[in-house]
């Protein structure tokens, strides 16, 4: 049974915020000159009262316009990932289903996928639909940490704050021959799962009350490890998929990855021997979109004609400090 990624639609909140916004707050930071934290020209921030459910609803508007509301409301499976859940005790799947008018048989909130959550969502949707669990699935991702965590008064002074941007996306997957998911590779590297931490001064657990604002606990040593892992893992899962579908990486029509920084983007396309014009890059306009990076870039590629019917697109990413990576290949059939 063939399962296809039929379409994707996206949402970027608010007006673009320029690099000068963070420059006015910047203070001395030991990591200021690190390649991980060289700021993009622009990024978007979620509004103070805007929820992850709001973002997903706005992202789904393009699918509803092109396919009708019933295509969304009648989906059998809803798979979600939210960088910052609106409530800490549960994911947003139930509220998103209600907002979109859905009564799905399956609602799954994925947390471990991180920046590769869209790829993981494709794997889960493909497995469920091909096993007879339904005919259609939605994959909804929301990145909303930039305007909430990284724009806190104390955090926005740090080098790490100027890189993230916010955005959301919804993908439509169905039992269909239109845009077949050719193959998916997902790998978990559990030995690295504890390497991403929240830093608070004075130290406390993230849920405990107290002074100090939480941010990502980066150090030079951790950054060196993350760079090495990301440089290795994304090409590894990409080559695995390409090998199984019988396409050399250099012959891919398009590469779509997550976009942590310019260094990773350059290293990944060089590892796959692809020219820049065949690797979608919205970093300068959107910053690091985390899990929303792949679907936002895919949507841009389709809208601008960089991905045409019959093209093979490879989506690849790694997550957190390198505890997860995934790649998926799709033969794009066009927006039908």
Query: What is the CATH superfamily of the largest domain?
Result: Thiolase/Chalcone synthase
List low-confidence stretches: none
- Biggest beta sheet summary: 5 strands, mixed
Q: Indicate the CATH class of the largest domain.
A: Alpha Beta
Mean pLDDT rating = 96
CATH fold description of the largest domain = Peroxisomal Thiolase, Chain A, domain 1
Number of domains: 2
CATH architecture title of the largest domain: 3-Layer(aba) Sandwich
Helix content range of the residues, please? 25-40%
**What is the rounded distance between the termini?**
20 Å
Order of helices and strands: EEHEHHHEHEHEEEEEHEHHHEE
By DSSP, the count of extended strands is 13
Q: Helices, strands, pairings?
A:
Layout: E1 3-11, E2 17-18, H1 19-23, E3 42-43, H2 52-59, H3 61-67, H4 69-73, E4 77-82, H5 93-99, E5 106-109, H6 117-130, E6 136-143, E7 167-175, E8 181-188, E9 198-199, E10 215-216, H7 220-245, E11 254-257, H8 262-271, H9 283-286, H10 293-303, E12 312-319, E13 324-331
Parallel strand pairs: 4-5, 4-6, 11-12
Antiparallel strand pairs: 1-7, 2-3, 6-7, 8-13, 9-10, 12-13
Protein name: 3-oxoacyl-ACP synthase
GO molecular function, one term: 3-oxoacyl-[acyl-carrier-protein] synthase activity
InterPro entries: ACP_syn_III_C, ACP_syn_III_N, Thiolase-like
Can you give keywords for this protein?
alpha/beta, Peroxisomal Thiolase, Chain A, domain 1, 2 domains, five-stranded mixed beta sheet, four-stranded mixed beta sheet, 10 helices, 21% strand, globular
């Amino acid at each position: 049974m063939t399962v296809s990624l039929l379409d994707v639609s996206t949402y970027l909140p608010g007006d673009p915020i320029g690099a000068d916004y963070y420059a006015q707050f910047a203070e001395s930071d030991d990591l200021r000159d690190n390649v991980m934290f060289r700021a993009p020209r622009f990024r978007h921030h979620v509004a103070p009262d805007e929820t992850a459910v709001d973002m997903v609803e706005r992202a789904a508007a393009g699918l509803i316009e092109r396919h009708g509301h019933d295509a969304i409301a009648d989906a059998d499976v809803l798979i979600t990932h939210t960088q910052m859940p609106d409530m800490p005790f549960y994911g947003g799947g139930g509220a998103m289903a209600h907002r979109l008018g859905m009564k799905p048989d399956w609602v799954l909130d994925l947390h471990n996928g991180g920046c590769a959550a869209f790829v993981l969502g494709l794997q889960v949707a493909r497995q469920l639909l091909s096993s007879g669990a339904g005919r259609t699935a939605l994959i909804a991702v929301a990145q909303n940490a930039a305007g909430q965590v990284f724009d806190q008064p104390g955090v926005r002074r740090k080098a790490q704050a100027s890189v993230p941007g916010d955005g959301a996306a919804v993908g439509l997957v169905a039992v269909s021959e239109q845009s077949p998911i050719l193959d998916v590779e997902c790998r978990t590297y559990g030995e690295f799962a504890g390497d991403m931490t929240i830093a608070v001064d004075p130290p406390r657990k993230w849920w405990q009350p107290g002074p100090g604002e939480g941010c990502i606990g980066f150090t030079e040593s951790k950054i060196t490890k993350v760079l090495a892992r990301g440089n290795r893992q994304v090409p590894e899962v990409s080559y695995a998929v390409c090998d199984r579908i019988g396409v050399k990486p250099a012959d891919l029509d398009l590469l779509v990855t997550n976009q942590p920084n310019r260094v990773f983007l350059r290293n990944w396309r060089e590892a796959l021997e692809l020219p820049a014009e065949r690797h979608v890059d919205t970093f300068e306009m959107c910053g690091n979109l985390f899990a929303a990076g792949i679907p936002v870039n895919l949507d841009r590629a389709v809208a601008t004609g960089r991905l045409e019917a019959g093209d093979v697109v490879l989506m690849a990413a790694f997550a957190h400090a390198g505890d997860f990576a995934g790649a998926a290949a799709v033969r794009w059939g066009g927006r039908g």
